[in-house]
Amino acid sequence: SKNAIIIGSGIAGIASALRLRKKGYDVTVFEANPYVGGKLHVVEKDGFRWDAGPSLFTMPHLVDELFELHDIDPRTLFNYKRKEVVCNYFWEDGTTFSVHADTNKFISEAARTFNTSEVSLKNYLRNAKEKYDLTTSVFLEKSLHKASTYLSFDTLKSLIQSHKLDITSTLNSTNKKYFSDPRLVQLFNRYATYNGSSPYQTPGVMSLIPHLEMHYGCFLPKGGMHAITKSLHQLAIDQKVQFRLNEPVKKILHESGVANGVQTEQGSYYSDLLVCNMDIYSTYNLLLKDLKRSDKILRQERSSSALIYYWGVGRTFKELDLHNIFFSKDYREEFRCLFKEKTFSEDPTVYINITSKDETDDAPEGNENWFVMINAPANYGQDWETLKKISRDRIVQKINRILKTDIEKYLVTEEILDPILIESRTSSHRGSLYGASSNSKFSAFLRHPNFSGRLKNLYFCGGSVHPGGGIPLCLQSAKIVSDLIPDA
Ligand code: FAD
Fold first, then answer.
1. Using a 6 Å cutoff on CB, does residue 474 contact ligand 1?
2. For the Amine oxidase domain, which residue ranges apply (predicted)?
3. Considering the domain boundaries, does residue 379 fall inside one?
Protein backbone atom coordinates (compact mmCIF):
# COMPACT_ATOMS: atom_id res chain seq x y z
CA SER A 1 0.00 0.00 0.00
CA LYS A 2 1.00 3.65 -0.40
CA ASN A 3 2.60 5.57 2.41
CA ALA A 4 2.67 9.20 3.53
CA ILE A 5 5.05 11.09 5.80
CA ILE A 6 3.88 14.03 7.90
CA ILE A 7 6.52 16.44 9.24
CA GLY A 8 5.31 17.84 12.59
CA SER A 9 2.50 16.84 14.94
CA GLY A 10 0.82 20.22 15.43
CA ILE A 11 -2.97 20.15 15.27
CA ALA A 12 -2.86 20.38 11.46
CA GLY A 13 -0.26 17.61 11.24
CA ILE A 14 -2.35 15.23 13.35
CA ALA A 15 -5.50 16.17 11.41
CA SER A 16 -3.72 15.54 8.10
CA ALA A 17 -2.48 12.18 9.38
CA LEU A 18 -6.04 11.18 10.29
CA ARG A 19 -7.40 12.29 6.93
CA LEU A 20 -4.73 10.51 4.89
CA ARG A 21 -5.14 7.39 6.97
CA LYS A 22 -8.81 7.43 6.03
CA LYS A 23 -7.74 7.68 2.38
CA GLY A 24 -5.87 4.41 2.79
CA TYR A 25 -2.29 5.61 3.32
CA ASP A 26 0.14 4.16 5.83
CA VAL A 27 1.04 7.29 7.75
CA THR A 28 4.15 8.14 9.77
CA VAL A 29 4.43 11.43 11.67
CA PHE A 30 7.91 12.76 12.49
CA GLU A 31 7.97 15.10 15.49
CA ALA A 32 11.00 17.06 16.73
CA ASN A 33 9.73 17.32 20.31
CA PRO A 34 9.34 14.48 22.80
CA TYR A 35 5.60 15.29 22.79
CA VAL A 36 2.89 15.83 20.16
CA GLY A 37 0.70 18.88 19.64
CA GLY A 38 3.16 21.72 18.99
CA LYS A 39 1.64 24.95 20.28
CA LEU A 40 -1.35 23.05 21.65
CA HIS A 41 0.57 21.69 24.61
CA VAL A 42 0.40 21.78 28.41
CA VAL A 43 2.35 23.18 31.38
CA GLU A 44 2.22 21.46 34.77
CA LYS A 45 3.81 22.58 38.05
CA ASP A 46 3.15 22.42 41.79
CA GLY A 47 -0.33 20.96 41.44
CA PHE A 48 -1.40 23.41 38.73
CA ARG A 49 -2.18 22.65 35.08
CA TRP A 50 -2.28 25.30 32.36
CA ASP A 51 -2.88 25.03 28.63
CA ALA A 52 0.41 26.20 27.14
CA GLY A 53 -0.87 28.07 24.09
CA PRO A 54 -4.35 28.34 22.59
CA SER A 55 -7.16 29.03 25.04
CA LEU A 56 -10.01 30.09 22.83
CA PHE A 57 -11.98 27.31 21.19
CA THR A 58 -14.66 27.86 18.61
CA MET A 59 -16.12 25.67 15.82
CA PRO A 60 -15.64 22.41 17.78
CA HIS A 61 -17.44 20.52 15.02
CA LEU A 62 -14.19 20.71 13.03
CA VAL A 63 -12.56 18.50 15.68
CA ASP A 64 -15.60 16.21 15.96
CA GLU A 65 -15.43 15.69 12.21
CA LEU A 66 -12.11 13.86 12.56
CA PHE A 67 -13.61 11.27 14.89
CA GLU A 68 -16.69 10.89 12.70
CA LEU A 69 -14.46 10.39 9.66
CA HIS A 70 -13.25 7.21 11.37
CA ASP A 71 -16.76 6.21 12.48
CA ILE A 72 -15.99 6.95 16.12
CA ASP A 73 -18.48 8.81 18.28
CA PRO A 74 -16.44 11.89 19.32
CA ARG A 75 -18.09 11.89 22.74
CA THR A 76 -16.30 8.67 23.66
CA LEU A 77 -12.91 10.42 23.56
CA PHE A 78 -13.55 14.15 23.47
CA ASN A 79 -16.06 16.37 25.27
CA TYR A 80 -16.63 20.07 25.61
CA LYS A 81 -19.09 22.54 27.02
CA ARG A 82 -20.42 25.78 25.66
CA LYS A 83 -19.65 28.85 27.75
CA GLU A 84 -22.50 31.11 28.84
CA VAL A 85 -20.16 34.03 29.36
CA VAL A 86 -17.85 34.33 26.36
CA CYS A 87 -15.55 36.98 27.81
CA ASN A 88 -15.36 39.52 30.64
CA TYR A 89 -14.00 42.94 29.66
CA PHE A 90 -12.53 45.48 32.07
CA TRP A 91 -11.55 49.09 31.40
CA GLU A 92 -9.50 51.36 33.63
CA ASP A 93 -12.42 53.81 33.90
CA GLY A 94 -14.25 51.16 35.93
CA THR A 95 -16.46 49.83 33.12
CA THR A 96 -16.94 46.08 33.15
CA PHE A 97 -18.85 44.15 30.54
CA SER A 98 -19.59 40.45 30.07
CA VAL A 99 -20.29 39.20 26.55
CA HIS A 100 -23.04 36.61 26.79
CA ALA A 101 -23.34 33.74 24.34
CA ASP A 102 -27.03 34.56 23.92
CA THR A 103 -26.97 37.14 21.09
CA ASN A 104 -30.13 38.94 22.18
CA LYS A 105 -28.80 39.32 25.68
CA PHE A 106 -25.49 40.57 24.30
CA ILE A 107 -27.24 43.13 22.12
CA SER A 108 -29.46 44.54 24.83
CA GLU A 109 -26.68 44.69 27.43
CA ALA A 110 -24.15 46.20 25.02
CA ALA A 111 -26.68 48.80 23.90
CA ARG A 112 -27.21 49.80 27.52
CA THR A 113 -23.56 49.76 28.64
CA PHE A 114 -22.16 51.56 25.60
CA ASN A 115 -25.07 53.89 24.91
CA THR A 116 -25.50 52.44 21.45
CA SER A 117 -28.60 51.58 19.45
CA GLU A 118 -29.59 47.94 19.27
CA VAL A 119 -30.03 48.44 15.52
CA SER A 120 -26.33 49.27 15.04
CA LEU A 121 -25.35 46.15 16.95
CA LYS A 122 -27.73 43.98 14.95
CA ASN A 123 -26.52 45.48 11.68
CA TYR A 124 -22.94 44.89 12.69
CA LEU A 125 -23.53 41.23 13.49
CA ARG A 126 -25.58 40.75 10.33
CA ASN A 127 -22.75 42.21 8.27
CA ALA A 128 -20.27 39.90 10.07
CA LYS A 129 -22.35 36.91 9.03
CA GLU A 130 -22.62 38.18 5.45
CA LYS A 131 -18.86 38.57 5.26
CA TYR A 132 -18.38 35.09 6.62
CA ASP A 133 -20.88 33.57 4.18
CA LEU A 134 -19.37 35.42 1.20
CA THR A 135 -15.78 34.49 1.92
CA THR A 136 -15.81 31.11 3.58
CA SER A 137 -16.11 28.89 0.52
CA VAL A 138 -13.54 30.90 -1.42
CA PHE A 139 -10.97 31.74 1.22
CA LEU A 140 -11.30 29.12 3.91
CA GLU A 141 -12.52 25.84 2.53
CA LYS A 142 -10.56 25.36 -0.67
CA SER A 143 -7.10 25.88 -1.97
CA LEU A 144 -7.23 29.54 -2.97
CA HIS A 145 -4.37 28.86 -5.32
CA LYS A 146 -6.43 26.50 -7.40
CA ALA A 147 -9.25 29.03 -7.53
CA SER A 148 -9.47 28.82 -11.31
CA THR A 149 -10.81 25.30 -11.04
CA TYR A 150 -14.01 26.35 -9.35
CA LEU A 151 -14.28 30.09 -9.70
CA SER A 152 -13.67 32.48 -12.55
CA PHE A 153 -11.21 35.33 -12.03
CA ASP A 154 -14.05 37.80 -12.61
CA THR A 155 -16.15 36.37 -9.81
CA LEU A 156 -13.18 36.55 -7.48
CA LYS A 157 -12.47 40.13 -8.50
CA SER A 158 -16.05 41.27 -8.00
CA LEU A 159 -16.13 39.55 -4.63
CA ILE A 160 -13.04 41.39 -3.52
CA GLN A 161 -14.36 44.68 -4.79
CA SER A 162 -17.68 44.19 -3.08
CA HIS A 163 -18.13 47.06 -0.61
CA LYS A 164 -19.75 44.61 1.79
CA LEU A 165 -16.40 43.03 2.56
CA ASP A 166 -14.63 46.26 3.58
CA ILE A 167 -11.37 45.04 2.10
CA THR A 168 -10.10 48.53 1.40
CA SER A 169 -10.75 49.99 4.86
CA THR A 170 -9.22 48.90 8.16
CA LEU A 171 -11.04 46.95 10.85
CA ASN A 172 -10.87 50.00 13.11
CA SER A 173 -12.51 52.31 10.55
CA THR A 174 -15.12 49.67 9.74
CA ASN A 175 -15.98 49.37 13.43
CA LYS A 176 -16.17 53.16 13.79
CA LYS A 177 -18.74 53.27 10.99
CA TYR A 178 -21.08 51.34 13.29
CA PHE A 179 -20.17 52.54 16.77
CA SER A 180 -19.19 55.83 18.38
CA ASP A 181 -18.35 54.56 21.87
CA PRO A 182 -14.57 53.99 21.91
CA ARG A 183 -14.93 51.07 24.34
CA LEU A 184 -17.21 49.18 21.98
CA VAL A 185 -14.91 49.93 19.05
CA GLN A 186 -12.02 48.58 21.13
CA LEU A 187 -13.98 45.44 21.99
CA PHE A 188 -14.59 44.69 18.32
CA ASN A 189 -11.07 45.81 17.32
CA ARG A 190 -9.64 43.11 19.56
CA TYR A 191 -10.73 40.41 17.11
CA ALA A 192 -7.74 41.43 14.94
CA THR A 193 -5.57 39.73 17.54
CA TYR A 194 -7.26 36.40 16.76
CA ASN A 195 -4.93 36.21 13.80
CA GLY A 196 -2.10 38.19 15.33
CA SER A 197 -2.74 41.42 13.45
CA SER A 198 -3.35 45.09 14.16
CA PRO A 199 -6.93 46.44 13.93
CA TYR A 200 -5.44 49.65 12.55
CA GLN A 201 -3.96 47.78 9.58
CA THR A 202 -5.91 44.56 9.02
CA PRO A 203 -8.80 44.96 6.53
CA GLY A 204 -12.40 45.44 7.66
CA VAL A 205 -13.31 41.98 6.36
CA MET A 206 -11.90 40.68 9.67
CA SER A 207 -15.09 41.88 11.36
CA LEU A 208 -16.36 38.44 10.34
CA ILE A 209 -14.37 36.93 13.26
CA PRO A 210 -16.90 37.89 15.98
CA HIS A 211 -19.44 35.92 13.96
CA LEU A 212 -17.45 32.75 14.67
CA GLU A 213 -17.42 33.38 18.39
CA MET A 214 -20.93 34.79 18.72
CA HIS A 215 -22.69 32.47 16.30
CA TYR A 216 -20.78 29.19 16.66
CA GLY A 217 -20.06 29.88 20.33
CA CYS A 218 -17.12 29.66 22.65
CA PHE A 219 -16.26 26.27 24.14
CA LEU A 220 -14.01 24.64 26.68
CA PRO A 221 -12.98 21.02 26.20
CA LYS A 222 -13.28 18.72 29.20
CA GLY A 223 -9.71 18.53 30.51
CA GLY A 224 -8.81 21.88 28.94
CA MET A 225 -7.51 22.76 25.48
CA HIS A 226 -4.81 20.10 25.71
CA ALA A 227 -7.59 17.50 25.53
CA ILE A 228 -7.87 18.35 21.81
CA THR A 229 -4.28 17.21 21.27
CA LYS A 230 -4.58 14.22 23.60
CA SER A 231 -7.78 12.84 22.14
CA LEU A 232 -6.77 13.31 18.48
CA HIS A 233 -3.40 11.73 19.22
CA GLN A 234 -5.17 8.75 20.81
CA LEU A 235 -7.52 8.48 17.84
CA ALA A 236 -4.55 8.52 15.46
CA ILE A 237 -2.78 5.79 17.45
CA ASP A 238 -5.98 3.72 17.41
CA GLN A 239 -6.10 4.17 13.63
CA LYS A 240 -2.51 2.87 13.39
CA VAL A 241 -0.80 6.14 12.56
CA GLN A 242 2.89 5.83 13.53
CA PHE A 243 4.47 8.61 15.58
CA ARG A 244 8.23 9.06 15.68
CA LEU A 245 8.82 11.53 18.52
CA ASN A 246 12.17 13.20 19.24
CA GLU A 247 13.06 12.77 15.59
CA PRO A 248 13.35 16.14 13.81
CA VAL A 249 13.41 16.02 10.03
CA LYS A 250 16.64 17.57 8.73
CA LYS A 251 15.94 17.51 5.03
CA ILE A 252 13.15 16.89 2.55
CA LEU A 253 14.40 14.46 -0.10
CA HIS A 254 13.46 14.82 -3.75
CA GLU A 255 14.45 13.55 -7.14
CA SER A 256 13.66 15.00 -10.58
CA GLY A 257 11.14 17.45 -9.13
CA VAL A 258 9.33 14.87 -7.02
CA ALA A 259 9.45 14.84 -3.20
CA ASN A 260 9.97 11.29 -2.02
CA GLY A 261 11.16 11.19 1.58
CA VAL A 262 12.84 12.75 4.58
CA GLN A 263 16.19 12.56 6.25
CA THR A 264 16.65 12.53 10.02
CA GLU A 265 19.63 11.77 12.23
CA GLN A 266 18.46 8.15 12.35
CA GLY A 267 18.36 7.71 8.58
CA SER A 268 16.39 8.28 5.38
CA TYR A 269 12.74 7.34 4.99
CA TYR A 270 10.93 7.18 1.67
CA SER A 271 7.25 7.80 0.94
CA ASP A 272 4.76 8.35 -1.85
CA LEU A 273 3.95 11.80 -0.57
CA LEU A 274 4.83 14.31 2.15
CA VAL A 275 2.76 16.74 4.17
CA CYS A 276 4.81 19.35 5.96
CA ASN A 277 3.29 20.89 9.12
CA MET A 278 6.46 22.79 10.04
CA ASP A 279 6.36 26.58 9.76
CA ILE A 280 6.75 27.35 6.05
CA TYR A 281 9.56 29.86 6.51
CA SER A 282 11.62 27.42 8.57
CA THR A 283 10.82 24.64 6.10
CA TYR A 284 12.46 26.51 3.22
CA ASN A 285 15.32 27.69 5.45
CA LEU A 286 16.16 24.34 7.00
CA LEU A 287 14.65 21.45 5.03
CA LEU A 288 14.66 22.74 1.45
CA LYS A 289 17.94 24.66 1.31
CA ASP A 290 18.54 23.34 -2.19
CA LEU A 291 15.29 24.76 -3.55
CA LYS A 292 14.57 28.26 -4.82
CA ARG A 293 12.41 29.98 -2.20
CA SER A 294 9.32 32.01 -3.01
CA ASP A 295 10.62 35.22 -1.43
CA LYS A 296 7.49 37.22 -2.16
CA ILE A 297 5.58 34.89 0.14
CA LEU A 298 8.24 34.39 2.78
CA ARG A 299 8.95 38.12 3.12
CA GLN A 300 5.45 38.72 4.53
CA GLU A 301 5.38 40.41 7.92
CA ARG A 302 4.95 37.87 10.75
CA SER A 303 1.96 37.95 13.08
CA SER A 304 2.39 38.97 16.70
CA SER A 305 3.85 36.67 19.33
CA ALA A 306 3.01 36.38 23.04
CA LEU A 307 4.49 36.79 26.47
CA ILE A 308 2.79 34.51 28.97
CA TYR A 309 3.01 34.15 32.72
CA TYR A 310 1.51 30.93 34.03
CA TRP A 311 0.65 31.78 37.60
CA GLY A 312 -0.61 29.66 40.44
CA VAL A 313 -2.81 32.06 42.40
CA GLY A 314 -3.53 31.21 46.04
CA ARG A 315 -7.09 32.54 46.17
CA THR A 316 -10.14 32.89 43.94
CA PHE A 317 -11.52 35.99 42.19
CA LYS A 318 -15.24 35.93 41.62
CA GLU A 319 -15.10 38.88 39.18
CA LEU A 320 -13.24 36.66 36.73
CA ASP A 321 -14.37 33.76 34.52
CA LEU A 322 -12.65 31.65 31.84
CA HIS A 323 -11.72 34.54 29.50
CA ASN A 324 -10.94 38.00 30.87
CA ILE A 325 -9.55 41.08 29.15
CA PHE A 326 -8.09 44.13 30.90
CA PHE A 327 -7.96 46.68 28.12
CA SER A 328 -5.13 49.16 27.54
CA LYS A 329 -5.90 52.87 27.69
CA ASP A 330 -4.42 53.52 24.25
CA TYR A 331 -5.06 50.62 21.89
CA ARG A 332 -3.61 52.35 18.82
CA GLU A 333 -0.36 53.00 20.67
CA GLU A 334 -0.25 49.35 21.79
CA PHE A 335 -0.33 48.10 18.19
CA ARG A 336 2.03 50.82 16.95
CA CYS A 337 4.54 49.57 19.50
CA LEU A 338 3.98 45.90 18.59
CA PHE A 339 4.26 46.20 14.82
CA LYS A 340 6.31 49.39 14.20
CA GLU A 341 8.60 49.63 17.23
CA LYS A 342 8.65 45.85 17.85
CA THR A 343 8.25 46.39 21.55
CA PHE A 344 5.58 46.59 24.28
CA SER A 345 3.57 49.71 24.99
CA GLU A 346 3.61 51.11 28.52
CA ASP A 347 0.10 49.88 29.19
CA PRO A 348 -0.51 46.60 27.34
CA THR A 349 -3.88 44.85 27.24
CA VAL A 350 -3.75 41.93 29.66
CA TYR A 351 -5.60 38.68 28.91
CA ILE A 352 -6.24 36.28 31.80
CA ASN A 353 -7.47 32.77 31.09
CA ILE A 354 -8.53 30.62 34.04
CA THR A 355 -9.56 27.08 33.17
CA SER A 356 -9.89 26.09 36.86
CA LYS A 357 -13.13 28.11 36.88
CA ASP A 358 -14.61 25.15 34.98
CA GLU A 359 -12.01 22.41 35.35
CA THR A 360 -11.54 22.29 39.09
CA ASP A 361 -8.69 19.76 38.89
CA ASP A 362 -6.52 22.37 37.17
CA ALA A 363 -5.68 24.04 40.51
CA PRO A 364 -5.59 22.97 44.16
CA GLU A 365 -8.75 23.80 46.06
CA GLY A 366 -9.14 27.51 46.79
CA ASN A 367 -6.51 28.34 44.14
CA GLU A 368 -6.73 29.37 40.48
CA ASN A 369 -4.52 28.66 37.45
CA TRP A 370 -3.97 32.00 35.74
CA PHE A 371 -2.65 32.13 32.19
CA VAL A 372 -1.69 35.79 31.90
CA MET A 373 -0.83 36.90 28.39
CA ILE A 374 0.08 40.10 26.61
CA ASN A 375 0.55 40.40 22.87
CA ALA A 376 4.23 40.56 22.02
CA PRO A 377 6.12 41.68 18.95
CA ALA A 378 7.64 38.94 16.82
CA ASN A 379 11.22 38.06 17.79
CA TYR A 380 13.72 40.40 16.12
CA GLY A 381 16.44 39.78 18.71
CA GLN A 382 15.11 42.28 21.25
CA ASP A 383 16.51 42.29 24.79
CA TRP A 384 13.81 39.91 26.05
CA GLU A 385 15.21 39.58 29.57
CA THR A 386 14.77 43.31 30.18
CA LEU A 387 11.44 43.44 28.35
CA LYS A 388 10.11 40.55 30.45
CA LYS A 389 11.03 42.29 33.71
CA ILE A 390 9.42 45.59 32.69
CA SER A 391 6.34 43.83 31.35
CA ARG A 392 5.81 41.75 34.46
CA ASP A 393 5.76 44.93 36.57
CA ARG A 394 3.30 46.59 34.22
CA ILE A 395 1.03 43.54 34.21
CA VAL A 396 1.07 43.30 38.01
CA GLN A 397 0.24 46.98 38.38
CA LYS A 398 -2.59 46.79 35.87
CA ILE A 399 -4.13 43.78 37.59
CA ASN A 400 -3.79 45.52 40.95
CA ARG A 401 -5.47 48.67 39.64
CA ILE A 402 -8.36 46.84 38.02
CA LEU A 403 -9.02 44.19 40.66
CA LYS A 404 -7.98 46.44 43.55
CA THR A 405 -5.69 43.79 44.91
CA ASP A 406 -2.03 43.06 45.53
CA ILE A 407 -1.67 40.08 43.22
CA GLU A 408 1.97 39.29 44.02
CA LYS A 409 0.96 38.41 47.55
CA TYR A 410 -1.05 35.49 46.18
CA LEU A 411 1.39 34.08 43.61
CA VAL A 412 2.44 30.58 44.64
CA THR A 413 4.20 29.46 41.47
CA GLU A 414 5.22 30.79 38.06
CA GLU A 415 6.33 29.66 34.61
CA ILE A 416 7.04 31.93 31.64
CA LEU A 417 6.71 31.55 27.87
CA ASP A 418 8.29 34.17 25.59
CA PRO A 419 8.69 34.59 21.81
CA ILE A 420 12.16 32.96 21.88
CA LEU A 421 10.75 29.81 23.50
CA ILE A 422 7.78 29.73 21.13
CA GLU A 423 10.25 29.88 18.24
CA SER A 424 12.61 27.24 19.60
CA ARG A 425 9.86 24.83 20.68
CA THR A 426 7.79 24.90 17.48
CA SER A 427 10.13 26.30 14.77
CA SER A 428 7.67 29.16 14.30
CA HIS A 429 9.63 31.86 12.47
CA ARG A 430 10.24 34.81 14.85
CA GLY A 431 7.95 33.14 17.41
CA SER A 432 4.82 34.31 15.60
CA LEU A 433 1.59 32.68 16.77
CA TYR A 434 -0.22 32.65 13.44
CA GLY A 435 2.39 32.62 10.64
CA ALA A 436 2.18 35.72 8.45
CA SER A 437 0.14 38.64 9.80
CA SER A 438 -3.04 39.77 8.07
CA ASN A 439 -2.00 43.41 8.16
CA SER A 440 -2.18 43.72 4.38
CA LYS A 441 -5.33 43.50 2.32
CA PHE A 442 -3.46 41.09 0.07
CA SER A 443 -2.43 38.78 2.88
CA ALA A 444 -4.95 36.06 1.98
CA PHE A 445 -3.29 35.83 -1.45
CA LEU A 446 0.23 36.00 -0.11
CA ARG A 447 -0.02 33.05 2.22
CA HIS A 448 1.84 30.05 0.95
CA PRO A 449 -0.36 27.56 -0.94
CA ASN A 450 -1.13 24.12 0.52
CA PHE A 451 1.07 22.48 -2.09
CA SER A 452 4.54 23.04 -3.47
CA GLY A 453 4.73 24.66 -6.89
CA ARG A 454 8.21 23.19 -7.33
CA LEU A 455 8.08 19.66 -5.98
CA LYS A 456 5.38 17.20 -6.85
CA ASN A 457 3.88 15.21 -3.93
CA LEU A 458 4.82 17.86 -1.35
CA TYR A 459 1.95 19.49 0.55
CA PHE A 460 1.79 22.04 3.37
CA CYS A 461 -0.62 22.40 6.28
CA GLY A 462 -0.71 24.46 9.50
CA GLY A 463 -0.94 28.01 10.70
CA SER A 464 1.76 29.48 8.47
CA VAL A 465 0.13 28.52 5.15
CA HIS A 466 -3.31 28.96 3.58
CA PRO A 467 -5.90 29.65 5.01
CA GLY A 468 -4.07 30.84 8.18
CA GLY A 469 -3.45 30.38 11.89
CA GLY A 470 -5.69 29.42 14.79
CA ILE A 471 -7.15 26.00 15.45
CA PRO A 472 -10.16 26.19 13.08
CA LEU A 473 -8.08 27.37 10.13
CA CYS A 474 -5.32 24.85 10.84
CA LEU A 475 -7.94 22.08 10.78
CA GLN A 476 -9.24 23.55 7.55
CA SER A 477 -5.75 23.44 6.03
CA ALA A 478 -5.58 19.69 6.73
CA LYS A 479 -8.91 19.23 4.98
CA ILE A 480 -7.76 21.22 1.94
CA VAL A 481 -4.55 19.18 1.74
CA SER A 482 -6.43 15.93 1.94
CA ASP A 483 -8.86 17.10 -0.77
CA LEU A 484 -5.86 17.69 -3.05
CA ILE A 485 -4.57 14.14 -2.55
CA PRO A 486 -6.05 11.10 -4.33
CA ASP A 487 -7.00 7.96 -2.40
CA ALA A 488 -4.13 5.51 -1.89
P1 FAD B 1 2.35 23.90 15.45
O2 FAD B 1 1.57 23.87 16.69
O3 FAD B 1 3.10 25.12 15.11
O4 FAD B 1 3.30 22.65 15.49
C5 FAD B 1 4.27 22.37 14.53
C6 FAD B 1 4.93 21.09 14.96
O7 FAD B 1 5.94 20.75 14.02
C8 FAD B 1 5.61 21.21 16.32
O9 FAD B 1 5.21 20.14 17.13
C10 FAD B 1 7.09 21.15 15.97
O11 FAD B 1 7.88 20.57 16.99
C12 FAD B 1 7.05 20.29 14.74
N13 FAD B 1 8.24 20.46 13.92
C14 FAD B 1 8.78 21.62 13.52
N15 FAD B 1 9.88 21.39 12.78
C16 FAD B 1 10.01 20.05 12.69
C17 FAD B 1 10.93 19.19 12.04
N18 FAD B 1 11.97 19.67 11.33
N19 FAD B 1 10.76 17.86 12.16
C20 FAD B 1 9.73 17.34 12.89
N21 FAD B 1 8.84 18.12 13.51
C22 FAD B 1 8.97 19.46 13.42
N23 FAD B 1 -5.30 29.49 18.26
C24 FAD B 1 -6.62 29.44 18.55
O25 FAD B 1 -7.41 28.89 17.77
N26 FAD B 1 -7.11 29.99 19.71
C27 FAD B 1 -6.28 30.60 20.61
O28 FAD B 1 -6.73 31.06 21.66
C29 FAD B 1 -4.89 30.67 20.33
N30 FAD B 1 -4.04 31.25 21.21
C31 FAD B 1 -2.70 31.04 21.06
C32 FAD B 1 -1.83 31.40 22.09
C33 FAD B 1 -0.48 31.10 22.02
C34 FAD B 1 0.43 31.47 23.14
C35 FAD B 1 0.02 30.43 20.87
C36 FAD B 1 1.48 30.03 20.80
C37 FAD B 1 -0.83 30.12 19.83
C38 FAD B 1 -2.19 30.41 19.90
N39 FAD B 1 -3.09 30.06 18.89
C40 FAD B 1 -4.43 30.07 19.13
C41 FAD B 1 -2.61 29.59 17.57
C42 FAD B 1 -2.60 28.09 17.48
O43 FAD B 1 -1.93 27.56 18.58
C44 FAD B 1 -1.86 27.69 16.23
O45 FAD B 1 -2.38 28.34 15.08
C46 FAD B 1 -1.91 26.19 15.98
O47 FAD B 1 -1.83 25.45 17.16
C48 FAD B 1 -0.77 25.85 15.05
O49 FAD B 1 -0.82 24.51 14.70
P50 FAD B 1 0.07 23.94 13.56
O51 FAD B 1 -0.59 22.71 13.07
O52 FAD B 1 0.39 24.99 12.56
O53 FAD B 1 1.44 23.47 14.22
1. yes
2. 11-485
3. no
